[in-house]
Design goal:
There is one protein chain. This protein is mostly helical. Helices cover 77% and strands 0% of the residues. It has one domain. α1 packs across α4. The longest helix is centred in the middle third of the chain and has 33 residues. It starts with a helix and ends with a helix. The model has no long low-confidence stretch (mean pLDDT 91). Belongs to the YggT family. InterPro entries: CCB3/YggT. Pfam families: CCB3_YggT. This is YggT family protein.
């Protein structure tokens, strides 16, 4: 029973954390706000991020309210798992592990967005709002790599390079 509850709590927090991180990333990359995916992410996170934004203003393109909320969700996940498993750890460990959890979730989200974008590009048949949004949020990662490694014979290796870099960073932080 405890394993099932641990799984359920971790999964629910992870899913919402990814939505919050997607909002943060979409605002950083200035993705189309009127895209249906953007609208879903906005509506799913607005009940918490909206009130936070009233006293946490944006800093340039950085949505500090979404960032703080994502970090808090990472800490909530760690604290909930510690409590569910009857472990004894200090608050500093929960804070550090929570931050690392949020960073790892961001890297994981970007990994899967790149994978989905690559797969969708094989089957693209014109305009698709999901594909357009994926293009907008991944292009800031891929464009600098393309400057160093241009497409070779029509094959764009930038996605592969960024995926390897993201996985390296996830392994490096160890969460």
């Amino acid at each position: 029973m405890n394993n099932a509850l641990t799984f359920l709590v971790a999964t629910l927090i992870d899913l919402y954390l990814i939505i919050v991180l997607l909002r943060l990333w979409m605002q950083l990359t200035q993705a189309d706000f009127y895209n249906p995916v953007s609208q879903f992410v906005y509506k799913a996170t607005q009940p918490v991020v909206g009130p936070l934004r009233s006293f946490m203003p944006m800093v340039g393109k950085l949505d500090t309210a979404s960032l703080i909320f994502a970090l808090a969700l990472g800490m909530l996940k760690v604290a909930a798992l510690v409590w569910l498993n009857g472990l004894a750890v200090g608050p500093l460990v929960i804070v550090i592990q929570g931050i690392l959890t949020a960073v790892s979730s961001l890297l994981s989200m970007l990994f899967w967005v790149l994978i989905i974008r690559a797969i969708l590009s094989w089957f693209s048949q014109g305009y698709n709002p999901i594909e357009a949004m994926l293009h907008q949020i991944t292009e800031p990662l891929l464009a600098p790599v393309r400057k160093v490694i241009p497409p070779i014979g029509g094959l764009d290796l930038s996605v592969l390079v960024v995926i390897i870099a993201l996985q390296f960073l996830r392994i490096l932080i160890g969460v």
